[in-house]
Amino acid sequence: MNSARRSLPSEFAAHGILIAYTVIALFPVLLILINSFKDRRSIFQAPLALPSLESFSLIGYATVLEQGNFTLYFFNSFVVTVVALALVLILGAMAAFALAEYRFPFNPLLGLYLAIGIMIPIRLGTVGILEMMVATNLVNTRTALVLVYTANGLPLCVFILTEFMRNVSKDLKDAARIDGLNEYTIFFRIVLPLVRPAMATVAVFTMIPIWNDLWFPLILAPGEAVKTITLGTQVFIGQFVTNWNAVLAGLSLAILPVLVLYLVFSKQLIRGITSGAVK
């Protein structure tokens, strides 16, 4: 009874902290969504108010869809994100399986080398990356962005998945080998399904920075034909005049894929995070 009484205040405190953090995290998103449905005057006069019959306006969405070539920007972001995410998950999972399953010289050093990629920001190598892309004629191509994002996402993917794959039952894998399955079949049909929560966690943590990135699209792919949605939204921001309705509408549309991804993988994401905490 005493332990239950002592745990009750701590539970209230933990829930209070989580609720406060959720409000702080979601407030900017809600502010963008709310103001995207209001006219320009209401955005500045009452930014915290909900849209009313007088302030409600879809001019921002109309401007984005008619003037901003939004469909092309969305397609470019979608292609770059999906291809880079697929490469990160496939290559990262294969590397993690090799590090967790096989013992070879310099195995720990190789894992440490990959982990260093998490600590060093890739933006520090922007000049070298740009020179490399210029030398290979990949500037203003989606391929340049895919390669950069894949290289940036692999260290975290390998780091997370390695620990999960080490906890996959060795007896299960040995039984599959006795049955005559090769290593690729064991990896794709036995190991990967067992680490789906970790894969979902990696997918969310990898997809969001790629989708929201402005730095590398601005440097490596500023051409109109390959602009991403974040870079395309900048066309409504001028030196002297900014179309805030269009900017907020574009950002609102850009948020939708992230929300959909979270709703799809929310259960797997929570399972992956809690399993990692236990480990």
Level of helix content? over 70%
Tertiary shape: globular
Task: List low-pLDDT spans.
Answer: none
Number of helices: 13
Number of strands: 0
Helix-strand pattern, N to C?
Answer: HHHHHHHHHHHHH
| CATH-derived architecture | Orthogonal Bundle
- Gap between N and C termini, in Å? 30 Å
Instruction: Name the CATH superfamily assignment.
Output: MetI-like
Q: Quick one: biggest sheet?
A: none
Q: CATH fold name, please?
A: MetI-like fold
Arithmetic mean pLDDT: 84
**CATH top level class name:** Mainly Alpha
Q: Tell me the strand percentage band.
A: under 5%
**Domains (count):** 1
Which structural class do the helices and strands define?
mainly alpha
Radius of gyration: 23 Å
